[in-house]
Amino acid sequence: MRKLLIATRNKGKFLEIKKALKGRPFELLGLDAVKKIPKNFKVKETGKNFRENAILKAKIFAKKTGFLTLADDSGLEVDALAGRPGIYSSRYAEGTDKERCLKLLQEMKNIPDKKRASQFRCVIAIFDSRAKKLTTCEGICKGKITKKPKGDHGFGYDSIFYLPKLKKTMAQLRSFQKNAFSHRGKALRKAKNDLEKFLIA
User: Fold this and answer.
1) pLDDT above 90 (res 160)
2) What is the DSSP letter of 85?
3) Count of C-beta atoms within a 10 Å radius of residue 193
4) Are 26 and 3 in contact (CB under 8 A)?
């Protein structure tokens, strides 16, 4: 069975991806399972958008390990903040996810409900360094920013991202519900099909 490296150390993200790719004939590995990648190694995300950063990460880790590699770059885009935090979502504030959420809520404390529209965007890149094959796919999930965190599931900005259709935040959803509606879930369903291109490599 061919190995597929999931280029993340985020355990929550790895489990989401693992569940979404269930049924595909690959052995899934996270970065923590690859000894040749130092624990403190990080790819400098110098891309101008999510797609460029996802490709950058997929190519670097594929070349370092020799494995078929899947990498994603995801983030939150808030209309009232001119698209911020965008590609800087994970670096929006030093510290924990909770601290990043609180910073964003503080910035939006005077923004009325009808102007709190936002979206999560995810771009996935899959790269095979041997065959020089690359594919990318994108998923978007639209919602709005809450006034305070709600829910105990998920990670990142899930607790402040509200889905009007479900009347819940991402962090109030079970994993199967989140995968059905989330930006990453949508991108992964496309990636699941795209992986067929790499089975013969």
Assistant:
1) yes
2) B
3) 12
4) yes
Classified as helix, coil or strand, 2 is strand
Residue 190, token pair as written in the block: 């496309």
Q: Tell me the CATH class for 2-198.
A: alpha beta
How do the domains of the chain map onto residue ranges?
2-198
**Stretch 140-151: mean pLDDT:** 96
DSSP 8-state class, residue 39: T
Residues belonging to the active site: 73
Taking all residues of the chain, what is their mean pLDDT, rounded to a whole number? Answer: 92
What's the pLDDT band for 154 if we cut at 50, 70, 90?
Answer: confident
Torsion region of 47: left, alpha or beta (phi above 0 gives left; psi -120 to 50 gives alpha): beta
The secondary structure of residue 140, as a DSSP letter, is E
Whether 201 has a pLDDT exceeding 60, the answer reads: no
85 prior amide bond cis, ω within 30: yes
Residue whose pair of structure tokens reads 């989140």 in the numeric block: 178
B/e letters for 36-60, b = 16+ CB within 10 Å, e = fewer, are: ebeeeeebebebeebbbbbbbbbbb
Q: What is the mean pLDDT of residues 20-41?
A: 88
pLDDT for 28 beyond 70 = yes
70 phi/psi in degrees, rounded to 5: -115, 125
